[in-house]
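Thread title: Can someone regenerate the structure for this chain?

I was given the following input by a collaborator and told the matching structure tokens would be attached. They weren't. Posting the sequence so someone can regenerate them.
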Amino acid sequence: MVTLRLRPVDTKLLRDLWRMRGQALAIAMVAMCGIATLVTMRGGYEALLEAQHSYYERYRFAHVFAHVKNAPLTLVDRVREIPGVNDADGRVVFDASLDVPGLDEPASARLVSLPATPGTGLNRVHLRSGRLPETGNRLEVLASEAFSTANHLRPGDSLAAIINGRKERLYIVGIGISPEYVNEIKGNSFPDNRRFGVLWMARDALAAALNMRDSFNDVAVILAPHASEQRVIEQLDILLAPYGSLGAYGRREQVSHSFIDNELSSNRVSGTIIPAIFLGVTAFLIHNVLLRIITLQRAQIALLKSFGYGSFSVAAHYIKFAVLTVMAGGVLGVALGTWLGQGLAGLYAEFYHFPSMAFRLSGFSIALSLVVAIFSAVFGAWLAAVRVLRLAPAEAMRPEAPAHFRPGPLERLGLQRYMPLPVRMVLRNLERNAAKSLLSILGLALAVALVITGQYTFDALNEIIRLQFRTAQRDDVTLSFNEACDLSVAHNLAALPGVLRVEPFRSLPVRMRFRHRMKKTVIMGMAPVRELRMILDEREQPVDLPQEGIVLTKKLAEILGVSAGDALTVESLEGKRASATIPVTLIVDEPIGTFSYMSNAALARILSEPETASGAFLAVDPKHQAELYSTLKSIPAVGSVNLREATLQSFLSTVAQNMKINTMVLVAFACVIAAGVVYNAARIALSEHAVELASLRILGFTRGEVGRMLLGEQGLLTLAAIPLGCVLGYALSALLSELLSQELFRIPLVVSTRTFLLSIGVVLLAAAVSGYLVWRKVQKLDLIEVLKTRE
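Best answer:
Regenerated them for you:
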């Protein structure tokens, strides 16, 4: 039989852990929150990245895309001959308006041709159910999964579509997904699966409907390994320019891929910065606790050294205390993070449509999490254990030299005469232990800051909704036409049922250049007088568009590296491809998209054409909405209809919902950390002042007076920490706002009074609960035992 014998120092370690189990548990809970965040975010990132990579490879997702007016099929062979091109696929793509059963509002779909031979070509379709459309049957379609699920469509159902001016009834024969539309997004908006979807048709059927039997209007390209994407795009633009190309672009600018890429970037930040903050607080807590323990256990350290234990052995004893405490939280954090990660993977499966999506926690992620936990424990413990290495046994056997007391600010100002004795004692103790007081204030301030950081995302989302969807966008309906029309179309639209106001606009795809930077974007040519779509300055005042010049959003200006007063080179990607140098007159900050604005008249002058409209903003009488929607479904010239409230709901159900779920978890973790920080501060204070409190009891002070002195000190520290915590919370929020902002949308730096008050309330509640637990300890204080014990 093997008997396990512990060394005396290890026995002491177990006793210390049991005696300080409350503080050890608080530290373990803080570590658990940090590790759980790291595991959740890292696991979700790995799951999404793996699903994306395998899907793209297996179904041959293209690297480069281009859209043209009409090009002969023979041109595809010339595309394949471009150096760096591995394969190319010429397709027919058309946006059609839909009449979906059970949906009052107009919808739209992107019709995409399927190759004649199933299972070939690029951006291949994965069949979820049903079958592929048969060649020769022009009315059969394969519907995208997100669109069919949102509208409760199944194989066998039908819907009406206007294709090339003719109304057709299309029959759904299957449900599918494609790597090209992991997110089904039209333009620079958000997924609205109820009103926009993808329909795949046999190539001969769609080409016949659009009179494009021997031609194509969309090309996708797969690059050879190590090929230069930029060179291929340049050659492709030259080749396709005579056929009305809008300019080739890479995956980074492909809408669906860009949306997922933004999510992955967000996860990288969330999985790095936030756990680092949590684990930094863990290291700070460990440092504070062990620093106080070492001070209180001077005599024990001296005895250990006198019995032959070296400085490193004694220091290792305290490092073990930290590692065991944090590892207990780390193991719980891995388990909790795995459970939360599975929920995150389920959330991704709803938003992103992959053939398979599962949360798999890799060995690397587990190892990384535990290594990070151990590092934070060792780092925090080592800073405190350095004292052990410097402490000589003979010096440690003597009690710590009493503090050198001198008159403080209270005495010098003569204020002590106006304060009760307990208050004077508390303030003097804080004055004469300034370093310890500042550390306690910093720890409590970090607790406030973490709760603010977790909460501020809600404020940012509310600000985006208020600014973008309530203040700037006041239209009810946005129409996009199949082709640019004369401005007189506004009079025709005004005659439609329920239309109260019409504001036409011109949307022009362009390529902007400034020095070595280039960006494909859209210029919105707008009327000089507007009420439905406002451009706002930093004071939220409407901006008048200049007669000459262009207004850029802040994000677009950052991408191009321009400032107000610089001149941009702008090349139209439509018609004659006019090019002009335009001065930047103003930069405005908008939370969503990367847009630019000009007056419609100035835009027409650049294009050397009359003023035209490619769409219109409408204000609609709610009483006649249904009648208007029914009318719009039958107008061939209308390519798509976007509803402001539908766009808002789409934003709330995608980006906002994901952010809210993550934020709720972070707020819960931040509250746990706040409670841990406050409880540790109170328990350390009790350990340090136990002898003093017992002495006061002997001198005749009541339990209530002694408890109030201890808790009064903690209360003052907490109140002093709140302003600093608010400043740190705002700074952390600013950091996350900068790191999490993306091209699709930016997170504004807005921290409301409600968030500050709620965060302060959480910390005060944690302080009250911790104070109650410490009060109970004070009531049970054994005076004789405390006075007999040197530490």
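Residues 616 and 680 are 61 Å apart (CA to CA).
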